[in-house]
Amino acid sequence: MTKTSRAASQTQVLDDVRRALGHSNTIKPVPLEPFVEPPSEEDAATLVERFIEEAVSLGCKVYRVDHAGAVGPCVAGICTKAGVDKVVVSGAALLAKLGLSTQLEKHQLATSCVAEFRETDKEHLVTHLAARMVGVTAVDAAIAETGSLLLTSDEDQALLVSLLPPIHIAVLKVSQIRQSLTTVIEKLNSERMGHDGRRRSATLISGPSRTSDVELTLSIGVHGPKELHVIILAG
Amino acid sequence: MNPPNTDLTERSHLALEDAILQGALKRATDTFIERRRDAVATVPDWEGLRTRARQVKEHTINHLDYYLEQLVEKVTTLGGQVYWAHTGDDVNRYIIELARARGVKSVVKAKSMTTEEIELNHALEAAGVRPIETDLGEYIIQLAHEKPSHIIVPAIHKTREQISDLFEEKLKAGRPRGVSEITAMARARLRDEFLSAGMGITGANFAIAETGTIVLVENEGNIRLSTQVPKIHVAVVGIEKVIPRFEDLSVFLRLLPRSGTGQKLTAYTSFLNGPRVEDVFALDENPHAAGDGNGQRATEQRGSTQQPHEFHLILMDNGRTNILADKQMRESLYCIRCGACLNVCPVYQKIGGQAYGWIYPGPIGAIISPQLQGLEKAAELPFASSLCGACRDACPVAINIPDLLLALRSKVREERGGKLSESLGIRGLSMVGRHPLLFRMAGKIARGLAGLLAKDGRIQSVPLSPLNKWTRYRDLPAPSGGSFAKWWKDQGADD
User: Fold this and answer.
1) What would be the CATH architecture of the domain defined by B19-285+299-320?
2) What is the pTM of this model?
3) Contact between B349 and B119 (Cβ < 8 Å)
4) How much is the ipTM here?
């Protein structure tokens, strides 16, 4: 297709839309009134319990720990039980603060951090992550109503670390659990996701990767992680 | 797309005589109906959500020019490239040119109805670019060279034994035993494809005008891999997929997974804004990417040795503006492709997706296919419905499918002119209906004949009559002895 004909087709579709609508030029519509739903209130304790119930029903394994030092041993325990090492840790501030990499080294787990790949190209990182057995990330928020985790590109490589290795371990704090999908959509929106021309992506994760494509029989771990472990840290 | 070379009746017969397909359809539609019902019950005001979703769709479609312009502006600001495609061929040509320019040899594809609609895979293959379907069901269909039979579970018509045979023959890595081995084999094979593909192609469930965000829902993780691993992501999106605001998602994301698979949310819901963050050139053409002081933008400021990631949004018309131009039919464009209307449709439940002969099956397909492909090519589809209305009740955006089917039927009539036998039949019926004596006589004759044919209260066949079509696959219940008028009188009711 030549440049000129491409340019012609660029205006054609929009012209066709206007013609179909009977608009001579585009007019800014009066937006719909906001959709108001009665807020449902739950206290923090109920939120955690609801989150755990939903996450477990999706096939997640959930662990509650009461202090920062317990996160490392918990991760190590999961690895031992699965019989794997080769752990990779995302660049999350929370995980750095917990000193997770150091904690894991103490448990003789081969641990790498995505920060080591800052200067290399993307292909090296992807190849490395695809060969790791366990990816550990923090989360941006969690949803009680659906048992979901929100991961965003604000956390260095969280989206790939939670995707390529066959086991994903997510660490979250109790205070990060929100009530509903609506509150998390509002949160992303109020952080002006996309509004300010900032490139940012996010994924809501609800349980391990799954398919029912063969005879509607549930099978876990088709392209994403087979196991999703959630460690909930008090605070 | 070329019209199928058999007619709907022939294809339906084939489907009805296929015992494996009948079993699979029953299992799939029963399961999805039940899962959907349970999931709907978890929402306090389902009807309120449907009404709102319909309002949003109606508003957006009536101002589609505005919202498309807004979307394009946002995506461009984010560093994405936008291409408006008048036809499916335009889309295919654009993608092939892009693949050639970037030296792309293989493409990983997520399940996408739009790319099925335009037969992108054929075009890519012809151009020497290898397309790989990565959704498990689509992968199976691609290996078998077949067409999908359901929007949500494309390979529902195949048994695990058939799939094991297929994998053994095509992948040459032994015979998988059971569903988990099938899944593991596909995972291993496709993982290599994700890591080596030069481009990922997806559709979109929603495109947010206000923010330029593309939203994709899935369960397997193949969409995440297709959008996040290869250097180039192309999203092929029908122009009707735009919705105005990010906050509208809280309504649509509660409706779509519940209606489609009966889940509260699918395993993954991805929100993509422009090219991927982590391998964009440091502070290139985007002045807004400057750090905000708390280090959150660190990821955007490194990677200067890398190739930039590319995001291409293709906005496709391919017949949609024709639908838009018809005020009554316009609401066909509200569809969010959940598949709920398929599962509840008594016709779909018996004939399955492939018998429809076009990419979009079921009640919504019977509306969309004739409009996208041309009424003359798919004129039989609007007639493949009992107009029972189950589809309208299941639709998360309350599309009035039965009314639209009727409207399409009259369009077909207008274009073709009615058959002589049909108009004589209707005239005869109308005369009998208007004359009480004739009506009573006709009733008596029919009851007499039915009594002769009935056996144990069922009529298994009606010789020499059009009713044979009915009795071919089911019995006709024998009418009870007396007439309604007599029964009414016996009840002592007034006339």
Assistant:
1) 3-Layer(aba) Sandwich (3.40)
2) 0.89
3) no
4) 0.96
